Amino acid sequence: MLYGYLPVLIFLGIAIALGVVLLALGLILGGGRKDDEKLSPYECGFEPFEDSRIKFDVRYYLVAILFIIFDLEIAFLFPWAVSLDAIGAFGIIAMAVFLTVLVVGFVYEWKKGALEWD
Q: Does pTM top 0.70 for this prediction?
């Protein structure tokens, strides 16, 4: 019964050992020399413009969530296209309804201005 778990345990053992070895090599070979430049905060190669604890505009999160939602919905198109022969006309109608809802939602968000940064 436990014999099926042996490959998983071997894989976990190798992964943990490799992680420990690589961390140890980094500490040994890296020297750990830290100067002020290496410890300074950094924003895309520039010095930070403001305090790092400022509040973000909610539109940033809205666009991120919308991207995730629409991206995940589009991911449903691949399995549908692969199984198109098996699902027949019912599958095509169901996907047409799904895509209609997707397009209506996208147009609604576009018209509401949720995708604009101004």
A: no
